Amino acid sequence: MLRSQLAQSKKRKFLEHLAETANVSASAEAARVPRRTIYYARAIDPEFAYEWDQALELGLDALEDEIVRRAKKGVQRPVFYQGEVCGHVREFSDTLAMFILKSRRREVYGEHLRTQNDNRNLEMLTPEQQEQEARMLLQRMRALRISVIEGIGVVTDVEDADTPGQRTEEL
Fold it and tell me: Structural domain of residue 11, as residue ranges?
C-alpha cells in the first residue's frame, strides 16, 4: 500500500511538473523517477497515459502563450557601455513569428508537400535513386502525418511503411 501511494505521489509530481514545463525528462527528474520507469508506467496505465497527455497539452499551451507574447511584445535586452548596463532595448524575433504563422496558418505559411520530384523523370532514375526519392517523400508525409494510400490498401502507420505493401489494410 505504501509503495503504491509513493508511486502515486511520484506520478502526481511528474504530471504537475509536466504541465508547467512540457518537458518529460525534466519532469521525471523533478519526480525523482528514471525516464524509463515513467514511460513504462505510461505504457501499462491508460489513466496515467491520459493524464500525461492532458498535462503535456497544458504545458505546451503555456509554452505557446509565452512564444506568442515574445513574438508580439519582444524581449528586453540590456545595453552595455564600458561594462555597465546603460539601458535596455526591446528585440523582436521574425523567426519566432514565422514559426507561429507556420503552425497556425499552415495553408498559407506552412511547408507544402511536394508531389513531384523537381521535374526529374522517375523512369530516368536508377532503382536506388527511385527508392531514395520514395523514402524522402515518406519522410515528408510522416512530418505532416498523412496517410499513404497504395493500390492494394491503406497504410495506417506511415512510420512502418518503408516497404511497399507493409502493414496495409484491405480497402
Answer: 2-62
41 & 13 share domain: yes
- DSSP for residue 122: G
- pLDDT of residue 167 exceeding 80: no
What gap in Å lies between CA 65 and CA 20, rounded to an integer?
Answer: 12
* Sequence letter at residue 27: S
Cβ neighbour number for residue 57 with a 10 Å cutoff: 13
- Contact (CB, 8 A) for 19 and 55: yes
Q: Map residue 135 onto helix, strand or coil.
A: helix
pLDDT in tens, 77-131: 999 999 999 999 999 888 888 888 887 777 777 776 554 555 456 677 788 888 8
Q: pTM for the whole thing?
A: 0.54
- What span, in angstroms and rounded, lies between the C-alpha atoms of 113 and 142? 11
C-alpha to C-alpha distance for 46 and 119, rounded to whole angstroms: 48
Total domains, the chain:
3
CA dist., res. 154 & res. 147, Å (int): 7
